[in-house]
Design brief:
homodimer, about 350 residues, alpha/beta, 6-stranded mixed beta sheet, 13 helices, about 40% helix, about 20% strand
């Protein structure tokens, strides 16, 4: 059966939590991918932000790469070819079949990820990313380029980690037009609110989230609603077809939600949630991110910790809600693996 | 552009609520199907249980068919060809491209729907159904036959109406193995329990469901858990790959849920739900349908009326929950339309 196997050369741009989780997931699924999908793979290029780059046409050893990342080592020590001048020339020279773009998100411009993805598509690779920037800043251009190249630009992990939202509408809900979107899309603020319901101060709750690795040193991206807004922008851009940037969304974070407000809600049997809402009206959309009190009649009430939800109203079904419980870097990595398998099977 | 159009001849077995809703949906989507999917269609055969059959190679007028159904008329009056002796010969002679099998469910054997679908696949048609019988009684055989014929046997509407459950796992969640399934899958019992929470007796709640058209004259299929059990069987059979029949599922309906029990639950801030559960253990599965008390921390608590939920634990994500609010014959019809579009696009 060996001659039915397809071999895929993979390039990784960014090798942080998500890139490493993907490498581990690919490794653990190696046998299953061979058995069930008739594919084998090798990682032929890795570009990191601060720890150099590696190219090896014969495949970089995954264990070596993970060990190097763990010890903040220099990836150029793993390189069998001379290291290219920069990430774009790495993409151009590595001859990979698939690019995984997992560099840090840039809310304002989507760069340099947009350039990375454009270059990869121009070189005939599928471009798969967990980075929200390119989706809100260049979805239509990159998708048109991908179509022209007969390749895929997929980004399942950008919203709700590995939960299949974009694939759902792409492959399972044909002829469905999305009218409204509602969701709790930022896990960190939801965890902060859950901790505050348990009596912790806002600062302590933020510190807790930093400790468990779900909040940045500067928590502004989460607590001021930027992450929720960029995810809502991505959903609107792709599912409603209306290009939308996070700055176009009315946005209020959770800094004004005091322990007093939480106690008042609790007394009414309710909870505060950072809610994303978008309603299509003709060719425009009204969208906002803001704290709302929700009661136990809403599935939003049940979301504690890092659990998230997206609800969709379409012209073909009643409201459809998707809840993802307990995401992790592994589930984000799964979203990228699903993108890979869907891209190569044309789904 | 006319020469890129693909024309599909459709045969309907069963023309009750679901068949009629599908005919109306197809009619209302005619322009969109042409514009966005480059397909046109005609209904070339309709077989009913008690009102005769019609065949017309040039297409039966949809308005005529709906009017005939509304007035309990005889479909043979719409036939341009001599009516075949029975449904199987209608399938063999109608030369359709797609069969929609929507005859009444037979919990025990799946017949005659299994025969209808087998015959359609043998004749080179896609076979699409909202009938649960063939799924639990012949999924593996019919799918193998469909694969051999390079056609599709799809049945999205059998569980949670039009909500995409089977397509989700088929097209959006590659390499995911389902470990556990939990759900509230029967709308009628959920509506009965909701009405009883409002103070109605069991009998009045059943009568209400009969009045709004969601319960049969003999409500046993719903209240004794048969419908929930066959839906759970379908999920286990397809998503876990373990052939399972409703009689193999430990089953308890809602007849023992008294107003007293409901009041006791309410006093605790809880609700009774008819819960389906399946847990895979190796190559076997433990499955049951039984009433359970659930609290506001569970999304099951929020399901009132006809809203339903399915929750899946897999090896690749945390728990994934799908909620469908307010289903109707239109949403069931949408599931069949989605099956059609997915079948012809190979998804």
């Amino acid at each position: 059966l060996e001659f039915f196997m397809e071999h895929y050369k993979l390039a990784f741009i960014g090798f942080g939590n998500v890139g490493q989780a993907l490498a581990r997931l690919l490794q653990s699924k190696e046998y299953e991918l061979k058995e069930k999908y008739n594919i084998t793979f090798s990682i032929t290029a890795i570009a990191t932000g601060n720890h150099g780059q590696a190219i090896d046409p014969n495949g970089i050893d995954v264990v070596d790469a993970l060990r190097t990342a763990k010890h903040d080592g220099d990836f150029s020590s793993l390189s069998r070819s001379p290291a290219p001048a920069n990430t774009l020339s790495l993409i151009r020279t590595c001859k990979a079949d698939v690019l995984f773009e997992n560099s840090p998100v840039n809310y304002k411009t989507g760069q340099p990820a947009v350039k990375h993805i454009r270059t990869a598509l121009e070189c005939g690779m599928h471009a798969l990313t967990a980075n929200k920037g390119p989706v809100v800043h260049a979805y239509h251009q990159l998708t048109a380029l991908a179509d022209k190249q007969r390749k895929k630009f997929y980004f399942e992990s950008t919203v709700m980690d590995g939960a299949p939202i974009f694939a759902l509408f792409r492959s399972a809900l044909p002829a469905a037009n999305v009218h409204t979107i509602k969701g709790v899309l930022n896990s960190t603020t939801n965890m902060i609110l859950t901790q505050m319901e348990g009596g912790e101060s806002f600062d302590d709750a933020v510190a807790y989230c930093q400790k468990i690795g779900i909040a940045e040193t500067d928590p502004s991206g989460d607590v001021d609603g930027w992450d929720a807004a960029i995810k809502l922008s991505a959903l609107i851009t792709v599912l409603m077809g209306i290009p939308t940037k996070p700055t176009q969304i009315q946005r209020e974070g959770i800094r004004d939600i005091t322990l007093d407000k939480i106690a008042t809600a609790k007394a009414k049997g309710m909870r505060w949630k950072l809610v994303c809402t978008a309603r299509r009206e003709g060719m425009s959309v009204h969208a906002r991110v803001a704290p709302e009190m929700v009661g136990p009649e809403s599935p939003l009430y049940t979301l504690t910790g890092t659990t998230s939800i997206a609800q969709f109203e379409t012209n073909v079904l009643g409201m459809l809600s998707i809840i993802e419980s307990d995401p992790s870097p592994q589930t984000t990595a799964y979203g990228l693996l699903a993108d890979l398998l869907n891209a190569i099977s044309g789904k």
